[in-house]
Amino acid sequence: MNAALGYREYSRDTIRLEQKPKSPAEGFVREKARGKLKQFKWNFIPIYLAVNGADWLQGPYIYPLYKDEKKLAEETVAKLFMAGFLAAAISASFMGKLADIYGRKQACLTFCVLYSLSCFSLLTSNIAILVIGRILGGASTTLMFSVFESWMVTEFNKRFPDEAGSTLSGIFSVMTTLNSVVAIAAGVVAEFATDMVGTQKTPFMVAVAVLMSSFVAISHFWDENYGERSVQRSPILDSEKLLAPKPPRHSLRLLLQDKQLRALGITSCFFEGSMYIFIFFKFPALKLAHQLSGTQGVELPFGLIFAILMSSMMLGSLLYKYISTHYPQLPPTKLLIALLFIAGATLFFPVVCRDERVTFWCFCLFEVCCGIYFPLMAYQKGKMIDDSVRANVYGLMRIPLNVFVVLVLSTTKEGEYSSKAMDGMLLTGLGFRHRDLVFTSCSALMLFAVVVNASLV
């Protein structure tokens, strides 16, 4: 299905781009613009995929490295993860603003260095260094989810001011689709590297190599762009710009005063926060459903399950591209409302129905929702947020979701903590009741986000 949708959209884009121009001059202009846009994509998307690949390489092994190879207690592991999310929440309050002032390219280079240091910290078992590594990892995550997208949107607006909004939406869709492919490939590479060398530290060293390659590529291929500082740097402003109303400069005030941005912030907190909680609890939930199905002595194929979930996410991104291309009149807010409602249902049904198949397909459907959500939300933020404060607003939006995840992790019970590692303990008694409460709460919060967005329609 993914291949069919991808080929259909590729064929449609090819036909649209190859339509005969009305005149030779129009053909020349169109071909030149097409070449510039293609070059822009080639300069950004491979690097974006590389830095995300470095993150995916670490995902399957961060938890077992702490728990199995370093023999840390489960509560200690939970506290290390909490340190990372707390660092992400705190750094989100100022890193975006610094990126806007001193440059998004510089912030992307800083990300490569900080995340590499976070990986190097895992070479030791010293708990203080491990905590510092998680703090660096949390700060790096804030940069990864704010400055790369900010750089791309600002650069796109600067280079292609007359380009249709559907072009930017298409770029976001391609980013999400290919990122799903990279996630699957990174899991395979991480497992191969670990088996070959014999230590779970290996994927992190591979990630360092990828990050350093990205550092070199960013330095060579990207131009710098700024937010707030870009206004101060302009030597001459024409009278029209001087008289034009300036966008609000205080990012927090902008978030609180603008209804649409406030709705996006609430949606980001509850959906993305629920997604991180889902990452921690999905495999224990599947193991419990598998146990209750009565199957004895058969281990779940977690590698295959991970690949299927990532394929589901890819399907979601392709569905978003199909919907945005064929139904451009559909308001994004209405699509977001439907998405939130379905995502909330997928987390609630496994709580009331312990069937193994229901749980698995609900989780697949949740990943499809994730695949639609990310390009949709990226397009919405790209359209609504001013370039001058883009990175700062993106960072501020991540504060509530990181706090939300920390609060949930702080209540984690012994034996139920899990991660992208596909590792987890069978839950009994209080453990699975706690997870049911978490899933039900996430479902309710997404329904609240539905109400908030519905008030804007």
Figure out the total of helices.
Answer: 19
The amount of beta strand, in percent, is under 5%
Structural class: mainly alpha
Question: Main β-sheet, in a few words?
Answer: none
Shape: globular
CATH second-level architecture: Up-down Bundle
The tally of strands reads: 0
CATH superfamily: MFS general substrate transporter like domains
- Quaternary class: single chain
Helix content: over 70%
Top CATH class: Mainly Alpha
Strand and helix order:
HHHHHHHHHHHHHHHHHHH
3D architecture notes:
With 457 residues, the protein is mainly α. The chain has one domain: Up-down Bundle (Growth Hormone, Chain: A), CATH 1.20.1250. It contains 19 helices and no strands. The chain has helices spanning 2-17, 24-58, 62-69, 74-91, 95-102, 104-120, 127-144, 147-159, 165-197, 202-221, 228-233, 239-243, 251-257, 259-292, 302-326, 332-352, 356-384, 390-409, 430-454. The longest helix has 35 residues, at 24-58. 46% of the residues are buried. The model is unreliable at 230-248 and 415-430 (pLDDT under 50).
Helix-strand layout with pairing:
Elements lengths: L1 H16 L6 H35 L3 H8 L4 H18 L3 H8 L1 H17 L6 H18 L2 H13 L5 H33 L4 H20 L6 H6 L5 H5 L7 H7 L1 H34 L9 H25 L5 H21 L3 H29 L5 H20 L20 H25 L3
Helix pairs in contact: 1-15, 2-9, 2-10, 4-7, 4-18, 5-6, 5-18, 6-7, 6-8, 6-10, 8-18, 9-15, 9-17, 13-14, 13-18, 14-17, 14-18, 14-19, 15-17, 16-17, 16-19
